[in-house]
Specification:
Layout (H helix, E strand, L loop, with lengths): L2 E3 L6 E4 L2 E4 L2 E5 L3 E3 L13 E8 L4 E7 L6 E5 L4 E4 L8 E7 L7 E6 L8 E5 L5 E6 L16 E6 L5 E5 L7 E5 L5 E5 L1 E2 L5 E2 L2 E6 L4 E6 L4 E6 L5 E5 L10 E4 L5 E6 L4 E6 L11 E7 L5 E6 L6 E5 L4 E7 L1 E2 L2 E2 L1
Parallel strand pairs: 18-19
Antiparallel strand pairs: 1-4, 2-3, 4-27, 5-30, 6-7, 7-8, 8-9, 10-11, 11-12, 12-13, 14-15, 15-16, 16-17, 20-21, 21-22, 22-23, 24-25, 25-26, 26-27, 28-29, 29-30, 31-32
């Protein structure tokens, strides 16, 4: 793949003994560029950053981090100003984070907790200020039960605008499941068998739903993305040819629905793949790659559905970064 831009935008910022790296290269079609001004106070990242979620209507970015004696969630504006930390003690090891009901007057934040303590192995819903509202699963107890609902290291949750929930459960635990819950949190369908076959998983790590009733799952351990019908749960197809070097860790759609954003942690890459038209899965095709510096270890991402800005949680660099879309032909991307 042709390098269209060399190292563009280099910035080193000291955080204790760790140097925040802003080195990157663009390969293929140039779709995103790094916003060097975000955030304005990167020294506030004092833990390993695992997830990020956007409230595009309020202009707020939620960043989930891990570590002893660190706030588990930090809030920034989309312009880069620091707002506040969450001082909750109910989070142990946040993994995935998702902003639901952003367009309503009562948005909420869902966080998967993979901790092994009394608050782990469950999924929690919070108010924007960090007040715990409800818990899915059995806190402190790993399991595979459906009634009552149990999880073991749930990786990520996607809450549809309908209120239906899609959960990938199994960031290395006993479960390897994709579960769909109704708005009333009843199980509608599930795929829960470990393996390499169709509709089987090995460490399902990220999930998103498009506008064509398709569920896209980053099946990390099998180095592939699997696709399902969101209504019936029927298996529709698999993408694997783009992930021979490293597995997909995160999968999200750009606001214009043209591209999937897929993160590969071990190769330190953020790839943009062509989104297929309705009725077709086909084979994956990489259009653009953001090659990050060594050991940055990008993990999960989210996008601003108003501006198209891409936010990336980076475990190795212990930071979150913002990338903004190039304007091509006067429009987004």
């Amino acid at each position: 793949m042709k390098v269209l831009y060399g190292t563009i935008g280099t910035q080193q910022q000291q955080q204790g003994s760790f140097s925040l790296s802003r080195d990157y290269q663009l390969l293929g079609r140039p779709l995103y560029k790094l916003d060097l001004s975000w955030p304005r106070n990167p020294e506030l990242f004092i833990g390993e950053v695992f997830g990020v979620a956007l409230d595009q209507f309020a202009g707020v970015v939620y960043v989930a981090q891990r570590g002893d004696n660190v706030p588990k969630v930090l809030l920034f504006t989309t312009e880069g100003d620091f707002l506040m930390p969450w001082n909750t003690t109910t989070l142990e090891m946040p993994h995935g984070i998702f902003l639901a009901d952003a367009a309503s007057s009562n948005p909420t934040v869902w966080i998967t907790d993979v901790g092994n303590g009394p608050y782990g192995h469950c999924i929690k819903q919070y108010s924007p200020s960090g007040k715990l509202l409800q818990v899915l699963g059995t806190p402190g107890k790993a399991g595979s039960g459906l009634n009552p609902l149990q999880f073991d290291q749930p990786a990520e949750i996607f809450v549809h605008s309908s209120g239906e929930m899609y959960i990938v459960d199994g960031d290395g635990g006993m479960n390897n499941r994709l579960i769909k819950l109704s708005k009333e949190q009843e199980v509608l369908w599930m795929h829960g068998e470990k393996g390499q076959g169709l509709a089987q998983f090995y460490i399902p790590h990220s999930v998103t739903v498009d506008n064509a009733q398709r569920v896209w799952v980053a099946d990390r351990g099998n180095k592939r993305i699997q696709v399902f019908n969101s209504i019936t749960g029927e298996w529709l197809g698999t993408w694997g040819s783009c992930f021979t070097e490293d597995a997909p860790y995160s999968v999200r759609l750009t606001p214009d629905k043209k591209y999937f954003v897929v993160v590969q942690l071990n190769t330190n890459q953020i790839s943009l793949l062509d989104a297929p038209p309705v009725g077709l899965i086909g084979q994956c095709r990489v259009v653009s790659v953001i090659q990050l510096a060594d050991d940055v270890k990008p993990h999960l991402v989210d996008l601003d559905l108003k501006t198209g800005a891409l936010y990336v949680a980076e475990i190795g660099a212990q930071q979150a970064q913002k990338f903004t879309p190039f304007s091509l032909r006067g429009g987004f991307l």
